[in-house]
Protein backbone atom coordinates (compact mmCIF):
# COMPACT_ATOMS: atom_id res chain seq x y z
CA UNK A 1 0.00 0.00 0.00
CA UNK A 2 1.48 3.19 -0.76
CA UNK A 3 0.07 4.23 2.48
CA UNK A 4 -0.33 7.95 2.93
CA UNK A 5 -0.97 6.17 6.03
CA UNK A 6 -4.45 4.82 6.24
CA UNK A 7 -5.13 7.38 8.95
CA UNK A 8 -2.91 10.40 9.54
CA UNK A 9 -1.02 10.25 12.75
CA UNK A 10 -0.51 6.47 12.67
CA UNK A 11 3.14 5.64 13.25
CA UNK A 12 5.15 2.57 12.42
CA UNK A 13 2.45 0.98 10.30
CA UNK A 14 4.09 -2.33 9.53
CA UNK A 15 2.54 -4.41 6.77
CA UNK A 16 3.54 -7.90 5.72
CA UNK A 17 2.31 -8.77 2.24
CA UNK A 18 2.90 -12.48 1.73
CA UNK A 19 1.90 -15.53 -0.28
CA UNK A 20 2.70 -19.22 -0.09
CA UNK A 21 2.86 -22.14 -2.49
CA UNK A 22 2.04 -25.61 -1.20
CA UNK A 23 2.06 -29.24 -2.27
CA UNK A 24 -1.72 -29.45 -1.91
CA UNK A 25 -4.73 -28.27 0.05
CA UNK A 26 -4.83 -30.76 2.94
CA UNK A 27 -3.64 -29.91 6.45
CA UNK A 28 -0.71 -32.27 5.91
CA UNK A 29 0.37 -30.57 2.68
CA UNK A 30 3.69 -28.75 2.83
CA UNK A 31 4.64 -25.17 2.17
CA UNK A 32 7.56 -25.16 -0.27
CA UNK A 33 7.72 -21.43 -1.16
CA UNK A 34 6.92 -18.28 0.79
CA UNK A 35 7.44 -14.79 -0.57
CA UNK A 36 6.75 -11.42 0.92
CA UNK A 37 7.08 -7.67 0.85
CA UNK A 38 7.64 -5.82 4.13
CA UNK A 39 6.33 -2.27 4.11
CA UNK A 40 6.67 0.26 6.92
CA UNK A 41 4.89 3.62 6.80
CA UNK A 42 4.42 3.31 3.05
CA UNK A 43 8.03 2.39 2.26
CA UNK A 44 9.09 -1.06 1.07
CA UNK A 45 11.88 -2.22 3.38
CA UNK A 46 12.51 -5.72 2.13
CA UNK A 47 11.38 -8.44 -0.24
CA UNK A 48 12.02 -12.11 0.42
CA UNK A 49 11.59 -15.34 -1.53
CA UNK A 50 12.26 -18.56 0.40
CA UNK A 51 12.03 -22.18 -0.78
CA UNK A 52 12.18 -25.36 1.29
CA UNK A 53 11.63 -29.07 0.79
CA UNK A 54 8.41 -30.61 2.20
CA UNK A 55 8.36 -31.99 5.73
CA UNK A 56 8.71 -35.77 6.07
CA UNK A 57 5.43 -37.53 5.27
CA UNK A 58 3.80 -34.48 3.63
CA UNK A 59 0.87 -34.93 1.24
CA UNK A 60 2.06 -34.10 -2.26
CA UNK A 61 -0.60 -33.65 -4.91
CA UNK A 62 0.33 -34.16 -8.55
CA UNK A 63 -2.25 -31.52 -9.46
CA UNK A 64 -0.59 -28.99 -7.14
CA UNK A 65 2.80 -29.71 -8.68
CA UNK A 66 1.34 -29.27 -12.16
CA UNK A 67 -0.29 -25.94 -11.23
CA UNK A 68 2.88 -24.55 -9.65
CA UNK A 69 5.24 -26.01 -12.24
CA UNK A 70 7.44 -27.68 -9.62
CA UNK A 71 8.79 -31.22 -9.97
CA UNK A 72 9.48 -33.68 -7.16
CA UNK A 73 13.17 -33.45 -8.04
CA UNK A 74 13.09 -29.68 -7.50
CA UNK A 75 11.30 -30.12 -4.17
CA UNK A 76 14.00 -32.53 -3.02
CA UNK A 77 16.73 -30.04 -4.00
CA UNK A 78 15.40 -27.26 -1.74
CA UNK A 79 16.86 -26.54 1.73
CA UNK A 80 15.29 -28.25 4.75
CA UNK A 81 12.19 -26.67 6.38
CA UNK A 82 14.16 -25.76 9.54
CA UNK A 83 16.47 -23.51 7.54
CA UNK A 84 13.51 -21.74 5.93
CA UNK A 85 11.90 -21.30 9.36
CA UNK A 86 15.07 -19.79 10.80
CA UNK A 87 15.42 -17.44 7.83
CA UNK A 88 11.83 -16.24 8.24
CA UNK A 89 12.23 -15.62 11.96
CA UNK A 90 15.41 -13.69 11.30
CA UNK A 91 13.63 -11.47 8.75
CA UNK A 92 10.56 -10.89 10.94
CA UNK A 93 12.76 -10.09 13.95
CA UNK A 94 14.43 -7.21 12.10
CA UNK A 95 11.15 -5.31 12.15
CA UNK A 96 9.09 -6.74 15.02
CA UNK A 97 9.86 -7.05 18.72
CA UNK A 98 8.10 -10.34 19.44
CA UNK A 99 7.96 -9.51 23.15
CA UNK A 100 6.03 -6.26 22.54
CA UNK A 101 2.30 -7.06 22.30
CA UNK A 102 1.67 -3.83 20.38
CA UNK A 103 4.36 -4.45 17.78
CA UNK A 104 3.04 -6.75 15.05
CA UNK A 105 2.65 -6.88 11.29
CA UNK A 106 -0.68 -6.11 9.67
CA UNK A 107 -1.24 -9.09 7.37
CA UNK A 108 -1.98 -8.45 3.69
CA UNK A 109 -2.59 -10.74 0.74
CA UNK A 110 -5.12 -12.38 -1.57
CA UNK A 111 -7.40 -14.90 0.15
CA UNK A 112 -4.84 -14.54 2.90
CA UNK A 113 -6.57 -16.73 5.52
CA UNK A 114 -5.28 -19.73 3.58
CA UNK A 115 -1.72 -18.43 3.83
CA UNK A 116 -2.10 -17.62 7.54
CA UNK A 117 -3.18 -21.21 8.20
CA UNK A 118 -0.32 -22.57 6.08
CA UNK A 119 2.28 -20.48 7.91
CA UNK A 120 0.84 -21.37 11.32
CA UNK A 121 1.17 -25.07 10.56
CA UNK A 122 4.69 -24.50 9.24
CA UNK A 123 5.75 -22.77 12.47
CA UNK A 124 4.17 -25.49 14.61
CA UNK A 125 5.98 -28.21 12.65
CA UNK A 126 9.14 -26.34 13.60
CA UNK A 127 8.13 -26.46 17.29
CA UNK A 128 7.08 -22.79 17.40
CA UNK A 129 3.51 -22.01 18.50
CA UNK A 130 4.05 -18.26 18.52
CA UNK A 131 3.62 -16.96 14.97
CA UNK A 132 1.14 -14.56 16.59
CA UNK A 133 4.09 -12.82 18.24
CA UNK A 134 4.88 -11.41 14.79
CA UNK A 135 1.46 -11.17 13.08
CA UNK A 136 -1.69 -9.32 14.12
CA UNK A 137 -4.52 -11.69 13.27
CA UNK A 138 -7.09 -8.95 13.98
CA UNK A 139 -5.69 -6.59 11.34
CA UNK A 140 -5.90 -8.27 7.95
CA UNK A 141 -6.12 -6.60 4.54
CA UNK A 142 -7.44 -9.22 2.11
CA UNK A 143 -7.67 -7.92 -1.46
CA UNK A 144 -10.22 -10.63 -2.28
CA UNK A 145 -12.55 -9.52 0.53
CA UNK A 146 -12.18 -5.83 -0.33
CA UNK A 147 -12.84 -6.44 -4.03
CA UNK A 148 -15.88 -8.59 -3.18
CA UNK A 149 -17.30 -5.87 -0.89
CA UNK A 150 -16.88 -3.25 -3.63
CA UNK A 151 -18.44 -5.68 -6.12
CA UNK A 152 -21.49 -6.11 -3.88
CA UNK A 153 -21.72 -2.32 -3.61
CA UNK A 154 -21.65 -2.12 -7.43
CA UNK A 155 -18.45 -0.04 -7.38
CA UNK A 156 -16.31 -2.47 -9.40
CA UNK A 157 -17.25 -4.92 -12.19
CA UNK A 158 -18.78 -8.24 -11.20
CA UNK A 159 -16.49 -11.14 -12.05
CA UNK A 160 -17.27 -14.72 -13.09
CA UNK A 161 -14.55 -15.91 -10.69
CA UNK A 162 -12.27 -14.27 -8.14
CA UNK A 163 -8.93 -15.81 -8.95
CA UNK A 164 -5.98 -13.46 -8.61
CA UNK A 165 -5.41 -13.59 -12.38
CA UNK A 166 -8.99 -12.45 -13.02
CA UNK A 167 -8.86 -9.56 -10.55
CA UNK A 168 -5.47 -8.49 -11.92
CA UNK A 169 -6.81 -8.46 -15.47
CA UNK A 170 -9.85 -6.31 -14.65
CA UNK A 171 -7.67 -3.89 -12.65
CA UNK A 172 -4.93 -3.59 -15.25
CA UNK A 173 -2.25 -5.34 -13.18
CA UNK A 174 0.28 -7.55 -14.93
CA UNK A 175 0.74 -11.06 -13.53
CA UNK A 176 3.39 -12.75 -15.62
CA UNK A 177 4.07 -15.88 -13.58
CA UNK A 178 0.95 -16.98 -11.71
CA UNK A 179 1.38 -19.57 -8.92
CA UNK A 180 4.86 -18.37 -8.14
CA UNK A 181 4.42 -16.77 -4.74
CA UNK A 182 6.80 -13.86 -5.38
CA UNK A 183 5.04 -12.91 -8.63
CA UNK A 184 1.66 -13.42 -6.98
CA UNK A 185 2.37 -11.22 -3.96
CA UNK A 186 3.86 -8.40 -6.03
CA UNK A 187 0.73 -8.39 -8.19
CA UNK A 188 -1.48 -8.63 -5.10
CA UNK A 189 0.24 -5.61 -3.59
CA UNK A 190 -0.37 -3.63 -6.78
CA UNK A 191 -4.05 -4.62 -6.67
CA UNK A 192 -4.13 -3.57 -3.02
CA UNK A 193 -2.57 -0.20 -3.84
CA UNK A 194 -5.26 0.44 -6.46
CA UNK A 195 -8.07 -0.60 -4.14
CA UNK A 196 -6.76 1.74 -1.44
CA UNK A 197 -6.49 4.58 -3.92
CA UNK A 198 -10.14 4.06 -4.80
CA UNK A 199 -11.15 4.02 -1.14
CA UNK A 200 -9.23 7.24 -0.53
CA UNK A 201 -11.15 8.90 -3.38
CA UNK A 202 -14.39 7.93 -1.62
CA UNK A 203 -13.03 9.44 1.59
CA UNK A 204 -12.16 12.70 -0.19
CA UNK A 205 -15.75 12.94 -1.40
CA UNK A 206 -16.72 12.90 2.28
CA UNK A 207 -19.16 10.07 1.80
CA UNK A 208 -20.52 9.00 5.17
CA UNK A 209 -20.61 5.25 5.66
Verbal overview:
By secondary structure, this protein is an alpha/beta fold. It has a single domain, classed as 2-Layer Sandwich (Nucleotidyltransferase, domain 5). The protein contains seven helices and five strands. The protein has helices at 62-68, 72-77, 81-95, 112-125, 143-152, 164-170, 181-204, and strands at 14-22, 31-40, 43-51, 105-109, 135-142. It has a five-stranded mixed sheet with strand order 3-2-1-4-5, with helices on both faces. A hairpin with an 8-residue loop joins strand 1 and strand 2. The protein is globular and about 55 Å long. The two termini are 22 Å apart. It comes from Psychrilyobacter piezotolerans. Residues 14-201 form the Exonuclease domain. Keywords: Exonuclease, Hydrolase, Nuclease.
Shape by Cα distribution:
globular
Query: Any idea how many domains?
Result: 1
Q: Helicity range of the residues?
A: 25-40%
CATH architecture type = 2-Layer Sandwich
**Please, how many helices?**
7
Strand order of the largest sheet: 3-2-1-4-5
Overall mean pLDDT: 92
Short overview:
40% of the residues lie in helices and 20% in strands. By secondary structure, it is α/β, with parallel strands linked by helices. It is globular, with a radius of gyration of 18 Å.
Amino acid sequence: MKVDQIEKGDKNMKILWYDTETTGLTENSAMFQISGVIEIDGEVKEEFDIFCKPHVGADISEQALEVTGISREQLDSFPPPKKAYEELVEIFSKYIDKFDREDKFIIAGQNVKFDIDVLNRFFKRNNDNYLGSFLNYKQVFDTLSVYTALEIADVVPKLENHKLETICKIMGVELSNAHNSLADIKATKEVGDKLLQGLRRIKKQKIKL
